[in-house]
Structure formats: C-alpha cells, structure tokens
Design a protein that fits this description.
Strand content: under 5%
Radius of gyration: 48 Å
Shape: rod-shaped
Number of domains: 2
Helix content: over 70%
Structural class: mainly alpha
Length: 138
C-alpha cells in the first residue's frame, strides 16, 4: 500500500504520457498538479485529524483531572466540617457523658467484684477456717 508522499504516488510526466497517450503536455501537467494537490490535501487532513485527536485526549485528561481535583477538595472540606462539628455537637457531648457514666459503673462493679472475690478467698482458706473453728470452741 502506498502512503501519501511516496515516490510511487508521484507520477512523472513521462509515466502519465504513457498512461494517457491522447492528452497534451499541458493537460498532463494539470493532471499531475491535481494529484499533488490532492495528496497535499490528504496529508493536511491527516495531520489535522491527528492534532484533533491529540487535543481531544488532552481535553479528556484535563477534564478528568479537574473532576478528581474538585472531588478531592469537596471530600477534604467535608472531613474538616465533620471533625469540627462532630466533636462539639450535642450528640457527641451526650455520647461522651454516657461513656463517662458507663466507665464509672464499670469501675464500681470491678471494685465490688474484687471485694467479693477477697471475701470468698478468706472464707474458703483452710487455715483461716480452722482457726475460726478453734476460736468458736469446736
């Protein structure tokens, strides 16, 4: 397949005169010039198409970058707002208060559990049980 600009697509006057023996030199020159102009137009069109394609690709990447940049900024703004408002919101304050109450309750139950464990340990210790039995007169 010949590409525009190849030597095979550029016919000389001699080749054209063999191909079209009935045409005059002036007509052959017009024919040759028309071929060259057509070839030049194809090259220009091809270059324009490539430039258009490159521009479209650049635009699509630019649009994508702009969209990602905008979404990232929106996400950062939302995060800042949530952090700022969330910590001082009434719901957050109520939740913190509830956590403190539950922590106090857990600490009270742990202390009570520890005291009960120590009482059980004293009651089940054989040395203490024997000593108490002796003191009571058994």
């Amino acid at each position: 397949m010949t590409k525009p600009g190849d030597l095979q697509t550029r016919k000389t006057i001699h080749e054209l005169s063999k191909e079209f023996p009935n045409k005059t030199y002036k007509e052959l020159e017009k024919y040759r010039d028309a071929d060259r102009q057509e070839e030049a137009q194809r090259i220009i069109t091809q270059q324009e198409n490539e430039e258009l394609k490159d521009n479209q690709i650049k635009e699509s990447w630019k649009d994508r970058y702009d969209l990602e940049h905008r979404l990232r900024q929106e996400a950062e703004t939302e995060t800042i707002l949530i952090k700022g408002i969330g910590i001082n919101s009434p719901e957050m304050k109520a939740a913190k208060q509830k956590i403190e109450e539950l922590q106090k309750e857990i600490n009270r139950i742990k202390k009570e559990n520890n005291d009960l464990y120590n009482r059980i340990a004293k009651l089940t210790d054989p040395a203490i049980t024997i000593q108490k039995a002796r003191e009571s007169g058994l």
